[in-house]
Design goal:
- This protein is α/β, with parallel strands linked by helices.
- The protein is globular.
Length: 242
């Protein structure tokens, strides 16, 4: 039986100085995995650097988009790319070194052990054994409160619904109606979990340590946080009407 085809998705915007270390860590852990860099035309040359490496690295695929179109938009584009190219499992993590790429094996192993191919694994800061380091007190508490609020309102069986460190079986992604996933911002992370649960996914959290980003500055703004709340309320209202 052939080994499952694994694609790792990295959505990037100004991650030129972080991306080499993330790629090295990924291929150290999953040497046969392909990586897709979905870059939003980074001014710092992230996409150009990745395209140069792509010319000599068959495991690397690069899509440079027209501009900064939003994390949700980039995730949607990358996930559907993985479905269209017939991978078996799709892993996503942040490209800023906040997620340890060497932890990816634990998420994938759980998915591989699930014979039903309905298990989505989530790298979680808030499940027992998880942690965050190097973040401000405001950032820590705002994240905890937002996650508690979102998971409670949406009745999601997880503690870290905003974590983008995840492993998806592509058979599950194939069941989604992608035209119904409309969020282009950070709220996409909650939106896709709600849709996956609706098609029968099971969610399991794996404890991780979330680190302050390596190089560069955070893209998360107050308007992004309000956008997530808006998506959570829209999804909760939809669930109530069903």
């Amino acid at each position: 039986m052939p080994a499952p085809r694994v694609l790792v998705l990295l959505c990037t915007y100004n991650e030129r100085h972080n991306l080499p270390d993330v790629l090295a860590g990924l291929w150290e852990t999953l040497p046969t995995a392909d990586v897709l860099v979905m870059d939003d035309n980074s001014p710092d040359g992230t996409g150009t650097w990745a395209q140069t490496l792509q010319a000599e690295e068959s495991r690397l695929h690069v899509v440079v988009r027209s501009g900064k179109l939003g994390l949700g938009s980039a995730l949607r584009a990358g996930l559907t790319w993985g479905v269209e190219h017939r991978y078996d499992y799709l892993v996503n993590l942040d490209a800023d070194q906040s997620h340890d790429p060497r932890a990816v094996g634990r998420l994938l192993e759980l998915c591989l052990a699930d014979q039903t191919q309905r298990l989505v694994t989530i790298g979680s800061r808030y499940t027992p054994g998880g942690a965050s380091t190097g973040l401000s007190t405001w950032r820590l508490w705002s994240s905890r409160i937002m996650n508690w609020y979102g998971t409670t309102l949406l009745r999601l069986p997880v503690r870290d619904s905003s974590s983008s460190y995840r492993c998806y079986p592509v058979t599950l992604l194939q069941q989604l109606k992608w035209s119904e996933l409309t969020c282009n911002g950070y709220g996409f992370l909650e939106e896709i979990l709600v849709r996956l649960v609706e098609v029968g996914a099971r969610l399991e959290e794996v404890p991780i340590t979330y680190h302050a980003r390596g190089s560069g500055t955070s893209k998360l703004s107050l308007s992004d946080a309000w956008g997530v709340l808006s998506v959570i309320h829209r999804l909760a209202l939809r669930k109530k009407r069903k």
